[in-house]
From TrEMBL:
Alphabetic keyword roster: Fatty acid metabolism, Ligase, Lipid metabolism
SUPFAM superfamilies membership: Acetyl-CoA synthetase-like
Record bears the keyword Ligase: yes
Domain AMP-dependent synthetase/ligase intervals: 18-402
InterPro entries: AMP-bd_C (IPR025110), AMP-bd_C_sf (IPR045851), AMP-binding_CS (IPR020845), AMP-dep_synth/lig_dom (IPR000873), ANL_N_sf (IPR042099)
Name of the protein in its database record: Long-chain-fatty-acid--CoA ligase
Membrane-spanning parts: none
Database matches in NCBIfam families: PRK06187.1, PRK07008.1
Keyword Transit peptide attributed: no
Pfam families: AMP-binding, AMP-binding_C
Family (UniProt): Belongs to the ATP-dependent AMP-binding enzyme family.
AMP-binding enzyme C-terminal domain sequence ranges: 451-525
Length: 542
């Protein structure tokens, strides 16, 4: 039909082009793994991203191919966000906290063509390189002066800055199909092997628009944004894209995520908003409190990935006048689904009621719909009391995990989140429990099945059950419940040392409780809920 609007595809590169043309002088500050602070502008970011896009072409990378990154939050990672996705290949961010075997599995499954890495991860990359066949090229994200000697390498080792220098900065971002893939992130928040979630250009741009809105992360050109949430964890909750869209100054913390380093960076760069998991904020608050200091510029912080404790909301809002935005999301959702920001009539509620409200995970962004259902799949009322399985659907919700070997996770067109929640009359969702059998510790997943599998390798273990137990620092930690074989004298420490080298160190349970039996349901399945009721507070102070 004539007279309609222009048809421009929603593309990741258009966010960078916008930042370059309309916010070209805006700053990006990065703490580097090399130990210094790097500063440049969006204009320079765009120029170097184009050089890198040309370099990828020279390396023979084709559209749709996956390019892995194992890197902290920094400007080179940001360049790859746009160079890779913008040129039509798929940015695959890898989580360095995973065990090397899991990383190898994910890299092979994604068939990563090239693997970029920060110097910190050289030993990890060397172990990975010995285990995988797919990436033929490894690129150290540094300059020639800092290039490592890597003799025992499975593939070709290149230098990031060499690639940039040798490439032209003229590159036309291709007009891709907006439904083509832009990035890939694996999640262990499901049972079985980690699963890949493939984002499209369209889903990423729509998520960026919605997540930047005043009732969501409330970002503007006047902000100085510090993404503490890693760029390897669901695109740092979309903040690199959002910063480009709104033209905010960006501050990248690199590998230093302790309270002191974060506080110094926040004050030096006059950060106005930040985002991360509760564990990181605990470290920051402890440091600021020990100094008797407060924040001179920070106005709000997005807290998600795990429930935000009320004491943390209190500390930020009452002691430091930093507004807390409690958010809920998932890798499968790009990630943001809900944010807890008040409606007009809630603004004037008494403080205790507003705090109670902020313990909820909040209301849906436009573009995401949600519902709660019972065991039969029937929808439950939004009364704030009836808990049900939380399901979502929308523009940035996955419909199928990456790889042809998996069946669709959807139920009647809805994505089952594995979270149990209530929804109140105002549409505020609150997570009350979890039906999926995983543990979230410091914002990262631990597979209880993987822990149980290791325990079963021990010859004196008759039955092993791993549950999530509440923890004052990490939100949750794995607790292992074990029935020993008859006559066994196995001690807890002995069993825990059996985990050395078999799983990532931080996956190892903090304690073993030996039990006589474990409760089983009618189908012979372990009743983990009962065990969580009994032992779920094991790590909390009495
Ligand atoms: P991930 O895919 O690693 O981002 O993890 C998503 C899962 O983390 C959700 O399904 C929830 O189980 C949990 N989660 C995320 N945000 C919150 C929150 N604010 N409160 C409670 N659980 C959360």
């Amino acid at each position: 039909m004539q007279g309609l609007m222009m048809q421009q595809p929603l593309l990741v590169a258009s966010l960078l082009t916008h930042a370059e043309r309309h916010h070209g002088e805006q700053k990006i500050v990065s703490r580097r793994v090399e130990g210094d602070v790097h500063r440049y502008t969006y204009r320079q970011l765009a120029k170097r991203a184009r050089r890198m896009a040309n370099a990828l072409g020279t390396l023979g990378v084709k559209r749709g191919e996956r390019i892995g990154t194992l890197a902290w939050n920094g400007y080179r990672h940001m360049e790859l966000y746009f160079a890779v996705s913008g040129s039509g290949s798929v940015l695959h961010t890898l989580n360095p906290r995973l065990h090397v075997d899991q990383l190898a599995y994910i890299i092979e499954h994604a068939e990563d063509r090239v693997l970029f890495f920060d110097l910190t991860f050289l030993p990890l990359i060397e172990s990975v390189a010995r285990r995988v066949k797919s990436p033929k090229v490894f690129v150290a994200m540094t300059d020639r002066a800092h290039m490592p000697q890597a003799d025992d390498f499975g593939g070709m080792l290149m230098c990031y800055e060499d690639l940039i220098e040798q490439s032209d900065d003229v590159f036309e971002w291709p007009l891709l199909d907006e439904n083509s893939a832009s990035s890939l992130c694996y999640t262990s928040g499901t049972t079985g092997n980690p699963k890949g979630v493939l984002y499209s250009h369209r889903s990423t741009v729509l998520h960026t628009y919605a997540a930047a809105l005043p009732d969501a992360m409330n970002c503007s050109a006047r902000d100085v944004i510090l993404p503490v949430v890693p760029m390897f964890h669901v695109n740092a909750w979309g903040l690199p894209y959002i910063a480009c869209m709104v033209g905010a100054k960006l501050v990248f913390p690199g590998p230093a995520l302790d309270g002191k380093s974060l506080y110094e960076l926040i004050e030096q760069e006059q950060v106005t908003m930040s985002a991360g998991v509760p564990t990181v904020w605990q470290g920051l608050l402890a440091h600021v409190d020990a100094l008797g200091a407060t924040f001179s510029s920070m106005r709000r912080t997005v807290i998600g990935g795990a429930p935000c404790p009320t004491a943390m909301t209190d500390a930020f809002q009452n002691r430091h006048q930093v507004e807390v935005l409690h958010a809920w999301g998932m890798t499968e959702l790009s990630p943001i689904g809900t944010i807890c920001s008040f409606k007009a009539h809630q603004q004037s509620l008494p403080m205790p009621q507003r705090h109670a409200l902020q313990a909820k995970q909040g209301r849906s962004l436009c573009g995401i719909d949600m519902r709660i259902v019972d065991a039969n799949g029937d929808e439950l009322p939004w009364d704030g009391e009836s808990p049900g399985d939380l399901q979502v659907r929308g523009h940035w919700v996955t419909q199928q995990y990456f790889g042809a070997d998996v069946v669709s996770p959807l139920c009647d067109g809805w994505f089952p989140t594995g979270d149990i929640a209530t929804i109140d009359r105002d549409g505020f969702m609150q997570i009350t429990d979890r039906s999926k059998d995983v543990i979230k510790s410091g914002g990262e997943w631990i597979s209880s099945a993987a822990i149980e599998n290791v325990a079963y390798l021990h010859p004196e273990v008759s039955m092993a059950v791993c549950i999530a137990a509440r923890h004052p620092k990490w939100d949750e930690r794995p607790l292992l419940l074990v029935v020993k074989k008859s006559g066994s004298e196995l001690a807890g420490d002995e069993l825990l040392s059996f985990f050395n080298g078999r799983v990532a160190r931080w996956w190892t349970p903090d304690a073993v409780v030996f039990v006589e039996t474990v409760p089983l349901g009618a189908t012979g399945k372990v009743l983990k809920n009962q065990l969580r009721d009994q032992f779920g507070e094991y790590y909390l102070p009495a």
